[in-house]
Amino acid sequence: MSEHIQTSIKNRIGFLTLDRPKALNSLSLQMVRALTATLLAWRSNPEVHAVVIRSSSERAFCAGGDIRFFHDVGIKTPQGGSALLEDFFTEEYALNHLIHHYPKPYVALMDGIVMGGGMGIAQAGPDNRMRLVTERTKMAMPEVNIGLFPDVGGSFFLSRVPGQIGAYLGVTGEIIGAADALYAGLADVYVPAAHLPALLEALMSDRGADIRATTRAFARQFEIIDPATSMLATQRSLIDRHFAYDDVASIAASLRSDADAFAQNTLALMHKRSPLMMCVTLAQLRRGAAMSIADCLRMERTMVRRCFEHGEVLEGVRAVVIDKDNAPRWNPARLDEVSQDMVDRFFDAAWPQHAHPLRNLG
User: Fold this and answer.
1) For residue 132, which phi and psi values (nearest 5 degrees)?
2) pLDDT at residue 80 in the model
3) What are the DSSP E strand ranges found in the chain?
4) How far is Cα of residue 160 from the mean position of the Cα atoms in its chain?
5) pLDDT at 254
6) 91 an active-site residue?
7) Is the Cα dihedral 240, 172, 35, 178 positive or negative?
8) With contact defined as beta carbons under 8 Å apart, do 226 and 232 qualify?
9) How far is CA 67 from CA 8, 82, 266, 319, in A?
10) What is the distance between the alpha carbons of residues 228 and 225, in angstroms, rounded to a whole number?
């Protein structure tokens, strides 16, 4: 178990509290294992009828995986071939699958930063989830900024948001707030952060009620955010037009031809990202749209192996977290230097089908 995961059961609700505030609740292997063990135990526990996952910190729900760990371990092993890295991604993706198919209601209080791996433990399956945002929510799948791709099931949930919003969020890594999350279908309800204690009190005192119904009813008094006025809503037609292409070079060319400020700002944002991983991400999302969550996670497990073999993620983390110079030396350095063969390599099988580390996901 992990010292950074608190667990309790009250009013037949299992509470999972992420408690690693100095690291913005970045997930370690020990935290992944603690979450998995607890959820497996509660799955068959008749005293637990639902699960709430939250943070002990106001700053972040979960900022993602522990990318400093990725760098420290990956840099010491040729092509990132570390058993610890292998274990982390295999077990994290298995946890994402467990949450997606969890048989009991699963409520995620996405207050503060929720990015990368934080999205993976919040975006549960449509049959069991309730995802709450606040005015402090800062949501993103920002992996292209560190030479990675939107994993933890991003292939599945980003490819199923309206229009081309998923492609926009994945390729740019842009951060969105509560209204955008509601509009994109990446959140279900809004509650001001100051009222979260009252919500928790309601959940712990409302015996016999459906936890999702209680949460939704509580949130109705705060319907003061109109998703139709969000950035994503107001820019929807532009996003759908420019990100409809199946290659990033065409997206960039389309944006370049548009004098609109949003288009130009988006293009400027893309210039800061890994050219290779933007291309890999778009290919990933196009593939993921027709795949199950299990197949998406298996694909991502192969992709992450290829990513560490290439080394782009190690350079990205170096620039953002280690040296903090924010000047990554991407390889290739330019979008027009990315070939289709480079992109396809990320999807080449890394194991025989019978030996894939996630072969048993159903």
Assistant:
1) -110, 140
2) 54
3) 5-10, 13-18, 50-55, 60-62, 106-110, 113-115, 129-133, 138-140, 189-190
4) 14
5) 98
6) no
7) negative
8) no
9) 28, 14, 25, 12
10) 9
Residue 130 in contact with residue 106, Cβ under 8 Å?
yes
Indicate if 74 belongs to the active site. Answer: no
pLDDT at 267: 98
DSSP letter, residue 106:
E
What separation, in Å, do the N-terminal and C-terminal C-alpha atoms of the chain show?
25
Could you give the domains of the chain?
Answer: 5-355 (3.90.226.10)
Q: Are 62 and 5 in contact (CB under 8 A)?
A: no
Low-confidence ranges of the chain (pLDDT < 50): none
- What is the structure's pLDDT at 144? 97
Exactly one of 112, 117, 288, 316 is catalytic; name it.
117
Catalytic residue among 143, 174, 188, 300: 143
- Catalytic residue (one of 66, 92, 111, 151): 151
pLDDT tens for each residue of 209-266 = 789 999 999 999 997 888 999 999 999 999 999 999 999 999 999 999 999 999 999 9
On whether the CB atoms of residues 356 and 301 are closer than 8 A, the answer is yes
Selecting among 65, 80, 166, 288, the annotated active-site residue is 65
| Close Cβ partners of 118 (under 8 Å, ≥ 6 residues apart) | 25, 27, 60, 61, 62, 63, 64, 110
Q: Name the residue with tokens 């609109």.
A: 260
For the chain, the C-alpha Rg in angstroms (whole number) is: 20
Is 151 assigned a catalytic role? yes
What is the rounded distance in angstroms from the CA atom of residue 231 to the CA atom of residue 56?
29
Paired sense of beta strands 13-18 and 5-10, if any: antiparallel
Cα separation of 208 and 206, whole Å? 7
Q: Which amino acid is at 276?
A: L
Residue 207's pLDDT is 74
Q: What is the pTM of this model?
A: 0.95
Count of beta carbons in the 10 Å neighbourhood of residue 90: 17
| Residue 117 known to be catalytic | yes
User: 3-state DSSP call for residue 190?
Assistant: strand
Q: What is the DSSP string of 305-351?
A: HHHHHHTHHHHHHIIIIIS-------SSSSGGG--HHHHHHTTS-SS
